[in-house]
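User: Working on a comparison across species. This one is SHRM1 protein from Circaetus pectoralis. Can you predict its structure so I can line it up against the others?
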Amino acid sequence: ELISSLRSKLQTLCEERELILSEARECAKRGEELEAMVRDVCKPNEFERYMMFIGDLEKVVSLLLCLSSRLARVQNAMRRIDGNTDAEEKQSLNERHKLLSRQREDAKDLKENLDRRERVVSGILAKYLTDQQLQDYRRFVQVKTSLLIEQKDLEEQIKFFKEQLENLEKSIP
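Assistant: Here's the predicted structure for SHRM1 protein from Circaetus pectoralis:
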C-alpha cells in the first residue's frame, strides 16, 4: 500500500514537472520575443546590459537554490548525529556546513547586486517601452524566477520520493 502511494505521488510530481517544463518553454518563447524587441529599440550597450542581466538571473537564482538545498541536506545530516557518529564525520559535516553557509551568503550578495542591476535595466527599458511592454518585461522576470524555483523544488521532491521508494523496495524481501 505504501509503495503504491509513493508511486502515485511520484507520478503526480512527474506530471507537475511536465507542466512546469511546458510553462518554462512558453516563458522562454516570451523571453525571445522580448529580447528581439529590446534589441530593436535599445542602443547596443544597453541591449548588452539587458542580456547580461537576463543570463545572470538564471545563474544566480539557480546557484542560490542549489546552495540552499545542499545546506538543508547537511543540516538534516547534522540532526542525525548521535553518540555513534565518529568524530571525523562530525567534523566533515561541520566544515561543509560552514562552507555552504559562507557560499550561500556570497550568493545572497550576488542576488542583491542582481536586484540593483534589474532596477538599472528597468530604468533603461522605461525610456523605450510602453507601460504595457514594461509590465510584460517585469512579469517575464518574475515568472522566469518563479519557474526556476518551482522546477528546483519539484526536482528535490521527485528525488526524495524516488529514494524513499527505492529504500522501501529494498527493505521488502
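For your comparison, note: Residues 1-171 form one domain.

User: Helpful, thanks.
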